[in-house]
Write a structure and sequence with these properties.
181 residues, Alpha-Beta Plaits, 4-stranded antiparallel sheet, alpha+beta
Length: 181
């Protein structure tokens, strides 16, 4: 079994794309996954999947099932417990920021090509900074994520890649939960 973390983009944010976490747990269990649990109401699902399966195929299967069973179209980004451990270990802003509310990670559906990555730059006048590491972007937002222009929508527009952002507390909680089993 491989421990996965499904990060659903835009679920239960701003009053749209509503999914009850019980329905989400039932859906994952119905797909044959084990040790299914959700974290918060924002579409974070931890589960065990049998055998090695390509992440893109697994994410597509979950997206289709959510659309078919729940009538909601969402993007699902997958990480394994091991990849999430690497995410936590390589945050370049931990040494300079004590407040976890000012740290975020934007998870990308895939690693951007060099020409895509070159389009990602900090907007003028922005105090936030970022570091692109493979298929994720570490963010340090000293003025708060709600005030930054370097948000999920900006990153998706610049890269042309689906993405979802989680705050540092959520990332570390998911990491901890993924290691409990």
């Amino acid at each position: 079994m491989t421990k996965h973390i499904a990060l659903l983009r835009g679920v239960n944010v701003g009053g749209r794309t509503r999914i009850a976490m019980k329905d989400l747990r039932d859906l994952f269990t119905g797909m044959g996954f084990e040790a299914v649990r959700t974290y918060l109401q924002s579409g974070n699902v931890l589960f065990d999947a049998p055998g090695p399966r390509p992440a893109a195929a697994l994410a597509a299967a979950v997206e289709k099932r959510i659309a078919d069973d729940l009538g909601v179209s969402v993007t699902v980004l997958l990480r394994t417990a091991e990849s999430l451990a690497r995410t936590v270990a390589r945050n370049p802003y931990l040494a300079r920021e004590d407040d976890p509310a000012k740290l975020h990670v934007t998870f990308l559906a895939r690693e951007p090509a060099a020409e895509q990555a070159a389009r990602l730059e900090t907007p003028a006048g922005e105090t936030a900074v970022f570091t692109l590491v493979g298929d994720e972007i570490h963010l340090h937002v000293p003025d708060g994520y709600g005030r930054t222009k370097l948000d999920n929508a900006y990153i998706e527009r610049r890269l042309g890649i689906p993405a979802t952002t989680r705050n540092w507390r959520t990332v570390t909680a998911l990491h901890r939960l993924a290691g409990e089993d």
